[in-house]
Design goal:
By secondary structure, the chain is an all-alpha fold. It contains eleven helices and no strands. Helix 2 runs antiparallel to helix 8, helix 5 packs across helix 6 and helix 9 crosses helix 11.
Amino acid sequence: MAKTKKKNPKKKPIAKAGSAGRTGAKTAGGGSRRGHSGLVFGRGPNPVRVAAILRGLDQAYPEANCELKHENAFQLLISTILSAQCTDVVVNQVTEHLFPKYPDAKALAYAHPAEIEKEIRRTGFFRNKTKSIIGASKKIVEEFHGEVPSTMEELLTLPGVARKTANVVLGTAFGIASGVVVDTHVQRLSTRLDLTKNTDPKKIEQDLMQIIPQDKWVIFSHQLIWHGRRVCFARKPKCLECNLERLCYSKDKTN
């Protein structure tokens, strides 16, 4: 007698990441899932998720700007060189006394190095920074008629100036979106928000330039820096206060 095959019970469909079929899941407009933050918008730098991140930053920091105090492009250039491995707070305290004594490129170009070292000592690496700011000032005076150049190519010829410094000056002083400033905050947050898999600042910048609209490059950097200083700390980030929490699935999130 032939055996009859038992019919398998119908299998329940498996809910996909980002679908509303998960227990406790919310719709895309309703926030996050417990333990699955960010899945509503998918993973990685997809356009929907990036747009949501940009909206969140705009809501939190609509007036974000450079926190280095300056009155012109030259002062911003010097402050940015001094800010390497140093906080903006300390740089602002140092330049409060430095700029009245050395108000322009000519004054700094021919200053005595020992005097400048004494003025900027608190910013760290003061000997190398002295060489950079004096060297950059001399080149500005002798080759650019005392004016800070406004192109990436020319800025990169100045001693002590790499892409990050050039992007700061171009974006903040001249309103030119030449790239994305990648400092330690931007590097950390870009990784936490899964906008890049790279760790090298140059590669991170290229990744961000591919996914962030060019008209947002300047303010996006300022917004991430503000967010990193106010909420998304390197240690113990304030995730409960973060309006990007539903978009973030970083392993070092806190409760």
